[in-house]
User: What shape does this take?
Amino acid sequence: MTHPFLIFQWLEQQLHTHVGEHVTYTWFVMLLLTVLAFIVSRGIREVPSGWQNLMEAVVSGIENLIQETMGPKGKTYFPLIATLALFILVSNLIGLVPGFYPPTANLNTNAAMAITVFSMTHLIGLKEHKIAYLKHFMGPIIVLAPLIFIIELIGHLARPLSLSLRLFGNMYGHEIVLMIFFALVPFLLPIPMMLMGVLIAFIQAFVFTLLAMIYIAGSLEEAH
Amino acid sequence: MTFFAWCMIAAGFGMAIGSFGTGIGQGMAIKSAVEGVARNPSASGKILTTMMIGLAMIESLAIYVFVVAMIILFANPFTEQVMELAVR
Assistant: This one.
């Protein structure tokens, strides 16, 4: 139920290597972003033009979003958030190119990112509050602490699950709908679905990064 | 083979029920967001952001149902046992 032809899958078969296509497409997205960043950062000018304009808009947009949701403390975590945002956006959009497959339509890629966010929130919380971070899980009344602790534990463990499954379900569902429409009527019918795919790609990248920001901001604030 | 027919019925009905509730939930969320923007158009940016997050949260319920439906259809854990029984 995936694409009939994938460039990197074909390349892999020619080279007789056995890595999944989501891994090769992840490498491709990484390469694309790295080369783009490298080229743009070579020729930085006082008055931006061309690619520099676009990249400055993207970076300042993410910076403003972090400022709004996380406050002044959030600026430290800009690299993590911006990497997640750019990687997810580009890998979602790459699925619209014929012969390419979005790496986010595989649960493994999403689980890796969600687990990174999950462990980062707790590491940041521990770094920020030291042992007092446990207060986040204790609730307001000390007598009820054991009960609240279990509830909070389940709530925190549900975060990576929902983060990864949401992105996976959206991207994979879009791929399947596109394939079914393509099998039914290949002429013009998949185009509205592809337009919706552009919308889904932007919204899901936005939601993933915003939720990551909210989780990190939640572990940064004082327990009360 | 009736097992697989029931699997398809289960996936279809599950998706229908899941999207039914999600549709109502998202409709209510959008209704309040539109009312909020109509009363105070200058707050539309913030309302849009919050609404998107809320919609994604609600939508994830339907996505869970979709994932379960896909597991039932394409990665059914009981396929081997059922095939063994069918051969016997």
Remarks:
- Chain A is about 70% helix and 0% strand.
- The interface with chain B takes residues 1, 162, 165-166, 168-170, 172-173, 176, 203-204, 206-207, 210-211 of chain A (CB under 8 Å).
- Residues 100 and 205 of chain A are 18 Å apart (CA to CA).
